# Entry
Amino acid sequence: MSQSAFHTALLDPATPAPEGLIDPKGRPAGKRFDVYRNNVVVSLSEALTEAFPVCQAIVGEEFFTALAGQYVRQHPPRDPRIATWGTTLPAFLETFPPVAHLPYLPDVARLEQALRESYHAADSTPVDPSTITTESRFALAPSVRLVQSPCPIHAIWRFTRGGGPKPAPQAESVLVTRPAYDPQLTVLQPQAPAFLAGLAAGETLEEATPDGFDITETLTALITGGALTEPQP
# Structure
């Protein structure tokens, strides 16, 4: 029995138990393997539910369980850290026909994935606001994420969680920061992503500011979110 055969059979319920698999008493272990296979898929599906609770709430528990089963078999974990698994779910949703009528779902999944990544990102030391000048250059903290969508993903996220009004159709760019232990979300102004891109590219505060853009709101969100680190000369 090869490792490849075991792996294939583990994730495909239609595949028979690998030949040569026996229990402690030397008997064929087909039934034991079926139980183990089911437990693996169930555990991974539950992990996906914990990682993407808003997506599950949007489509419903039963549907998400079936969706997760499909995803598990097509995108099995490649890393032993279960907390990192599911990074490809947004792309999977883009090509999953049963959710084609929910064009916002992949980007909502991206937002939830960004929250996960921010939570597990390395710590950093925020810049002292008193040292900031128009000529300052910054590095963005490892926990910073930006999710842009033609859909109101933050409004959908809030509404689904019971914390906001019914979303209005509009594009949204959402900044993810982690000022303490838990990530937080901030909806940005339309020009803010270009401003962030400039900072990330090493431009000074003045150079990164688009013409006519008031950076006050965005800069405040970055500072309070601990998103700016290591000012460079």
Notes: The CA atoms of residues 33 and 39 lie 10 Å apart. The chain has a mean pLDDT of 85. The chain has two domains: 1-102, 104-233. Residues 1-102 form one domain.
